[in-house]
Amino acid sequence: PGTILRKLTMQHFTWPAVMTMTLYELLNRLVEDKRNCNDWRGVWHDVCWMLKCKMKRTPGYDKPRALPYDVLFELEITTEGKQQLYTLKANFGFDDDGKPCLTFMFPNED
User: Fold this and answer.
1) 53, 86, 100, 108: which has the fewest C-beta neighbours closer than 10 Å?
2) 6: which residues sit within 8 A by CB, 6+ positions away?
């Protein structure tokens, strides 16, 4: 799903994005469980969209900020036939080469 996610991320944000393995495993279970009728494109769009909505509801979201900074947001996910609300974290920071990068993860991850 790498190329699809990269292109979709760039429709929402100007930075490239990555996710932690823990988040990937959750989202992959969501996509693999055919009861949910989801694909990577739809799930990743939901993740990016909910972050974008949270940012727009945050006063001063459009003002420059010093990096790195985190944004917590919520996403409702249906897995194994049950809906559950997850809190996710987006870190606006840097990749290993020092370039801007958006990292999606759970709040307890770095």
Assistant:
1) 108
2) 16, 17
